[in-house]
């Protein structure tokens, strides 16, 4: 008798986990759709308010040589390299 109850509990637990997985998947899809809409509206508002269009951003504090070091200062010296 205990084995039958255990089997039924296992089946019900599996069904519950499946339903929760489906609900989590639907929630993820809805969140992706809303995020896409917000990003689209942000782009439109940025273009209408003379913000930079096309995704070009300014990089601050890094050198243009591609090394990524910028201006480094040596300990004990007041001049920058």
From TrEMBL:
Q: Where is the composition biased (Basic residues)?
A: 69-81
Q: Where is this region: Disordered?
A: 59-81
Recite the UniProt keywords alphabetically. Membrane, Transmembrane, Transmembrane helix
Segments spanning the bilayer are 21-41
Q: Does the keyword Membrane apply?
A: yes
Q: What is this protein called?
A: Uncharacterized protein
Question: In the record, what lineage is assigned to the organism producing the protein?
Answer: Eukaryota, Fungi, Dikarya, Ascomycota, Pezizomycotina
